[in-house]
Amino acid sequence: MMPYTRILSTLLLFAAFALAQGIGSEQVDFNKVKVNPAEMQSELNTRADLLQALKTGNTTKVDSALLVLSYEKVPESAIDSLEILQVNLIRGRYDLAVPQFANMLMKGRKKVRYSFANDSLYHYLKNETRIAPRHHWHRAERDQEGRHLKLKGYMTEAAQANIKQEYKDLASIFVDLHPYFILYDKGYWIYLGSIFEDISPDSMANIIRIRSEEGVDFHNDIDTLAATMMLIRMEAFCENYPESEYSEWLKRVSGNIKGSIKRYKEYRAYYKDKFYTGGLGLELFIGNSSTFVVGVPIQISRFILTPSYINGESSITIKEDQVKARNDFDEFFVTAGIDVYENKWLKIQPFAGGWDFFTAGLQGDFRFWMSKTPGEFHGAEYMTLKFRYMGIYHDTKTATSDETEEDELAEEKQWDHRFFVGIGVHFW
Asked: Does domain 275-427 have CATH number 3.60.21?
């Protein structure tokens, strides 16, 4: 049994590396060579055997099934390199998984064949490894963090595994490199194709698409500190392994990563381009003497026009034998302000205006929340805590303390000082 086991292992290793390197795929004209799913029953049965062997942990049967599936006249038609990678990750065969993953990323944007079957094995590998994206758009972003954590876990284990040092160092790079790449599986392309046309069994069995590409979603968080340390490890790898097949590729990727990080930082600092640009908001203030103000600020460049409504109780003061009483505030007014200073957190606005009265004052906005990225139409939102002073020049009515008739009250002008605290939501 020993010679047979050794022969089987040797053949399996060769087959795995052949798939990892893509041996033979460049010689196949994908447009001329088609797979007939009706003729693949034997391969489908072997895939079922592979699934059972994985679930039961039967290493020998896993190796045998992989060997059978790896040798097809049409490369990757029975089992593709992504599925092989997933099998090796599940088994902890990092000596095979790390170089295969590397070669998969190195072939970004190159078309490859996907295996013919959309079967239980495909779904098992997808659910167990979670390294390929969900193909439903509304689930993809939500699932992305989980996928990244799963791959990070695999590569962390690989970096600590008993494999050759070059692969361990490579895996330590992949711990933080994988978010800069997108992996696709057949489910993605089936879903994408189904949007525009019906997917036939024949077309499902002959998917020729890219498997990976460089890509960064700036809407998702990127650990720039981890990226900086990763770039250092990439430089060290290239110095330690100048003859490695991965060194030149890593040099190119490192340059791309630096550019991506720069663009990411600029994208996340989008608010700098929005200072003094304008927007629309809603603000609510509560002030002394039970006064409240509701306003709708409309900003164009530095100019801020705010239609508002004020409501408040009368104040009564008694001086010697006179009573000064103003009318209740219950009216609309408009203010015009200037955005004199603005940064990420703070905005200062002097203003003046009125309607039936005159007002002037100063308002400060503190942004305590801001959307991380602009939306689909390049707009963004923020919320503010607001502080406002309003000096209100308005009519008051004066009477002696024993006067009671409204028509006996004398009118005069007076300044009223009001302080407010408020909250606002803004779109810019």
From this structure: no
Residue 13 near residue 66 (C-beta atoms within 8 A): no
Tokens of 40: 């693949």
pLDDT by residue (tens digit) across 376-414? 778 899 999 999 999 999 877 666 555 555 555 566 788
Cα 218 from chain centroid (whole Å): 6
The domain spans of the chain are 2-223, 275-427
Please tell me the predicted confidence (pLDDT) of residue 386: 98
Q: What's the chain's Rg over C-alpha atoms?
A: 34
- Sole residue written with tokens 């009118």: 411
Residues of the chain with pLDDT > 90: what percent?
60
Quick: pLDDT tens for 128-151: 998 876 554 444 456 677 788 899
Distance CA 277, CA 288 (A): 32
Q: What angle do CA 138, 144, 145 make, to 5 degrees?
A: 130
Overall residue count recorded for the chain in this entry: 428
User: Which of the two residues, 182 and 369, has the higher pLDDT score?
Assistant: 369
Which of 265, 271, 172 lies closest to 223, judged by CA?
265
138-147, 170-179, 303-312, 324-333: least confidently modelled range = 138-147
Residues contacting 342, CB < 8 A, separation 6+: 275, 276, 348
For residue 116, CA distances in Å to 34, 62, 176, 233, 242 come to 10, 19, 32, 38, 39
Q: Quick one: how far is CA 50 from the chain centroid?
A: 36
